[in-house]
Design goal:
The longest helix has about 45 residues, at about 1-45. The protein has one domain. It has helices at about 1-45, 95-100, 105-115, 135-145, 145-150, 170-180, 250-265; strands at about 65, 75, 120-125, 155-160, 190, 195, 205-210, 225-230, 235-240, 240-245. It is of the alpha/beta class and about 270 residues long. A 3-stranded mixed β-sheet has the order 1-7-8, with no helix packed on it. The structure holds 2-acetamido-2-deoxy-beta-D-glucopyranose (2 copies). One 2-acetamido-2-deoxy-beta-D-glucopyranose binds next to loops. It comes from Solanum verrucosum. This is Calcineurin-like phosphoesterase domain-containing protein. Keywords: Membrane, Transmembrane, Transmembrane helix.
């Protein structure tokens, strides 16, 4: 009787430890399953790159060309002085207009001009963003050039003396601008002999754009208008006097050389 009881006792004990063991196993499986679900539903979605979401720069239709009617229309826009959008008030407006005027009015005006004029090229000639009221240069660049980008029309920009007063220096600004959709801006001009960027030139945003003859014409493969873009810098101190910067000899010598090449080609 005693033997049976003790046998029974140890049987109960081993049942108990088996139950514990099964509980631990189930718990373990539960943890693994939870981690798996967490990983597949939440974490991996955040970590993996979805290739279809990578945006390449949208390229404008090139080369630039005269139209069949012999015209080539450039919309030139300077001094937009864009800050932080809706919260940046207009300057030099009537007191009654002050509360209802912001950077968005500039955007609205630009969009309207592009729509009315349908230019072949849009050229922004500096102070596109206004450093002291733009807290994030990249954000302001996206907003200020948005109407040009939406239009799909090729556009080029150079800098003024205020663009670099926010969070990017002039080189960063020009390389950012050169990578934006439909932009034909460049940081450095191309060396026509070596076919590589001439980085030893003063400034950022020196380049040229060729405009070819009308489609189907005998000049359709020739550059008949060459647009030069030059960086005149921001500010300088000369003999202790604060003044504006200027175009340097290295830039002029590039311009002269290129101009001679075009004359020889004609
Ligand atoms: C700016 O835009 C707003 C909204 O369209 C308009 O009410 C206001 O008159 C504009 N201000 C100026 C000075 O053009
Ligand atoms: C321009 O180049 C294209 C392609 O190379 C050629 O087919 C065409 O005949 C050329 N047109 C002229 C006017 O030279």
């Amino acid at each position: 009787m005693f033997v049976i009881a003790s046998l029974f006792g140890s049987f109960e004990q081993s049942m108990e430890s088996a139950r514990l063991w099964i509980h631990s196993l189930l718990f373990f499986i539960f943890i693994i399953a939870s981690l798996y679900v967490l990983d597949t539903l939440v974490i991996s979605n955040r970590l993996t790159t979805h290739y279809q979401n990578i945006q390449l720069k949208k390229q404008p239709q090139l080369p630039l060309r005269f139209r069949s009617d012999g015209t080539f229309k450039i919309l030139q826009v300077a001094d937009m002085h864009y800050g932080n959008g809706m919260v940046t008030r207009c300057r030099d407006v009537l007191e009654s207009e002050f509360n209802y005027c912001s950077d968005l009015n500039t955007t609205h005006f630009l969009r309207k001009m592009i729509h009315i004029e349908r230019p072949d090229l849009i050229v922004f000639t500096g102070d596109n963003i206004f450093g002291s009221s733009a807290t994030d240069a990249a954000e302001s660049l996206f907003e200020v050039f948005a109407p040009a980008i939406e239009s799909g029309i090729p556009w080029a920009a150079v800098l003024g003396n205020h663009d670099q007063e926010s969070t990017m220096n002039r080189e960063e600004l020009m390389s950012f601008i050169s990578l934006m959709d439909y932009s034909v801006s460049q940081v450095f001009p191309m060396d026509p002999m070596e076919q590589q960027p001439m980085t030893n030139i003063d400034g950022f945003g020196n380049y040229n754009l060729e405009v070819r003859g009308a489609p189907g014409s005998y000049l359709s493969n020739s550059s008949i208008l060459n647009l030069y873009f030059l960086d005149s810098g921001d500010r300088a101190i000369v003999d202790g006097v604060r003044t504006y910067n200027w175009i340097r000899e290295s830039q002029l010598s590039w311009l002269r050389g290129l101009s001679k090449r075009f004359q020889v080609l004609l």
